[in-house]
Design a protein that fits this description.
The protein has 179 residues and is mostly loops. It has three domains: 57 residues, Wheat Germ Agglutinin (Isolectin 2), domain 1 (2-Layer Sandwich); 45 residues, Endochitinase-like (Wheat Germ Agglutinin (Isolectin 2), domain 1, 2-Layer Sandwich), CATH 3.30.60; 43 residues, Wheat Germ Agglutinin (Isolectin 2), domain 1 (2-Layer Sandwich), CATH 3.30.60.10. It has three helices and six strands; from the N terminus they run E-E-H-E-E-H-E-E-H. The protein has a two-stranded antiparallel ribbon. A two-stranded antiparallel sheet has the order 3-4. The chain is elongated, with a radius of gyration of 18 Å.
């Protein structure tokens, strides 16, 4: 069976192992995108589900005649485009909602979208299964332990595949079983 290509912008082990299409990267949170937040290995890019970079990208300044090339781009390098609905413009000229895009300390451009002065903190409302932490584990996710017979991957996701369970792949035995 072939690996499913993402149709909804999601990727990785918690999203049916979908891979990103069109030269996109799979972020540590399971979303497809093209910015450093998604693509840098240092930021947790998942190379099994899309492309990854080892160093920050420097956006090219050539402007194509195709308007689609300006989708999700912003700032002076991209015709002073402003990001849409509640998105931030990163210092590299990409629209998004991560701290890489939105923090003023990271170079957020307030003229082209919203910006934050403080990092976004996940809400810690306690419910029987906090949806924001479902299927997540490890130090990034309040030291949550995987349920039943599941393994905790090096990226903090619960599952049963070799990506999750093999110690050689970074399985975290403190938060689930490992092979």
């Amino acid at each position: 069976s072939s690996i499913p290509t993402s149709l909804d912008g999601r990727c990785g082990p918690n999203n049916n192992n979908q891979i990103c299409s069109d030269n996109e990267c799979c972020s540590k949170y399971g979303y497809c995108g093209r910015t450093d937040a998604y693509c840098l290995i240092a930021n947790g890019c998942q190379s099994e589900f899309g492309r990854c970079n080892t160093s920050p990208t420097i956006p090219s300044t050539t402007v194509s005649s195709t308007p689609t090339s300006l989708k999700d781009k912003c700032g002076p390098k991209y015709n002073n485009q402003v990001c849409s609905s509640n998105e931030c413009c990163s210092k590299y000229g990409y629209c998004g909602r991560s701290d890489d895009h939105c923090l003023i300390a990271n170079g957020c451009q307030s003229e082209f979208g919203r910006c934050n002065t403080l990092p976004t903190t996940p809400t810690t409302t306690i419910s029987s299964t906090p949806t924001s932490l479902k299927d997540k584990c490890g130090p990034k996710y309040n030291n949550q332990v995987c349920s039943k017979n599941e393994c905790c991957s090096k990226y903090g996701y619960c599952g049963r595949s070799d990506d999750h369970c093999l110690i050689a792949n970074g399985c975290q035995s403190e938060f689930g079983r490992c092979n």
